[in-house]
């Protein structure tokens, strides 16, 4: 009896030891620069236990008190194993960049899909325990079979060229707060491929990031500031940085919202990174709603219909249940869905409130009003109703970026691409006010350069936002909108007077024209004058802000973090677009500049940008090697 009791006690004791767990925490960084790595998958070897690092590279995982091995893996980095054998609770790990690991992503695809499924599962299970950010779910990896059926569509455009100041001193464009091109580019690079050049809209990449501009101090809800310094990729040229800041309104003071969720439930939305991710994203938005806000839900497939009438924001469970019950199937009558959504929005219109349709789709409209031109006409007609349109893109393979951008541009709204739950968190929670509440509409800029200092100039990006100079004073001309707290950044590259540039073609002197100066440049020390026009959301007459700009001759490394970060993103865009104006742009300089401008990076987006540049550098090296 005593022996049996002893054996039982020993068994229970050993079982207790084997089932004991302790928590291991730490930070995963890149070995070459010590920057944090988000999205690293960490598993306890031989078990199903795992987690992923958050936006700042931090992790927490429970392991056995006995011997355990942690396996760290991330696309483009060599997998690393760490034996957790002592009582140390913090294990910081450095991962080495690996060209071979990235090559395996592109060639095989299969193992990386397994990696991706596991990482998504782990990150989604963590979502509820990580309030306020840090959600990360890597994008899916396309293998060669999927890529063969790629029908994604992007509008083709020619990049802006240099204009000589003495012939054309004025330049006018509409602002753009869209960010879809950046997250779409991120999805492609994470999938192991460099983006197609027409998917790169440099202004959307730059404006993906928030900048620390000063809040407007006067009565105007928007203000702007400027900086001038040297161009890092074209020696002798300069960059003009323009930063716009919209007034940030506290959430409690924002007007009531009348929202209509317009959701594509056609068969093409059945993939895990479409309708399932869409539901998760909209639930995050529902959590932000106040009792005075109202939401209706309209869906469309072969036809359109309302699945939830306008419902108060205090009935969150009811709204979420309606979202959860959505299923994908059928063809795509997007035009009919848009018409019904606007009708419901107008039926519940709140005067002085935020009246908005939020369209979520992959853009693959295939019946009814479906062409890009027809959709443009439809939205331009609805725009005059006072209902704004926001467009959220999902998925890959059949994604129709051209239609999505057209809808947002013509619908007085913004356009974002949701590639993972972290991006949904950014769009619906972190930037809730800027996404949904407009503080200034029809915002446009006009610059006049002084030929005494500026020989030629070029606007980087904004190709589809250019306006005729006479449009600046035309209040009937549509332009971009800025939401609460939004920032907008634009960069011009300048050829100073007296500098020769390869980008300026030589033309023989004109025979029948008088050689006149366009301005009274002689006595002026002004480099340029900037004018900004905007309208208040409820008004139809624009207001004017004007400012002169002087060159303070600031060295590039002495400029603000805002200037250097935007410049590094622009340089990256020039490389990805294979721009004719990229000059000496290179990945190493981009990485060095972005590191110097990392600043306060609470959400980890700037660190993630550096990681993407490194991956693009590896992919570019692989492509060059293959071509050779």
General description of the model:
This protein has 628 residues and is an alpha+beta fold. It has helices spanning 2-19, 99-107, 110-126, 144-147, 180-190, 202-206, 275-286, 316-324, 334-347, 372-383, 401-410, 421-430, 432-436, 561-576, 587-596, 605-627; strands at 21-30, 41-44, 50-52, 58-64, 68-73, 80-84, 93-95, 163-164, 170-174, 222-230, 238-246, 257-264, 294-300, 304-312, 354-361, 388-394, 415-418, 438-449, 454-460, 480-483, 487-496, 528-535, 543-549. The strands form five sheets. A six-stranded mixed β-sheet has the order 14-13-12-15-16-17, sandwiched between helices. It has a five-stranded antiparallel β-sheet with strand order 8-19-21-11-10. A hairpin with a 7-residue loop joins strand 10 and strand 11. It is globular and about 115 Å long. The model is unreliable at 105-117 and 123-148 (pLDDT under 50).
Kindly report how far apart the N and C termini lie: 80 Å
Overall, the morphology is: globular
Helix count from the secondary structure assignment? 16
Class from helix and strand fractions: alpha+beta
Biggest beta-sheet profile? 6 strands, mixed
What is the β-strand count? 23
Helix content: 25-40%
Mean pLDDT: 83
Low-confidence spans: 105-117, 123-148
Largest sheet, order of strands side by side?
14-13-12-15-16-17
Estimated share of beta-strand residues = 15-25%
**Rg over C-alpha atoms, rounded to the nearest angstrom:** 27 Å
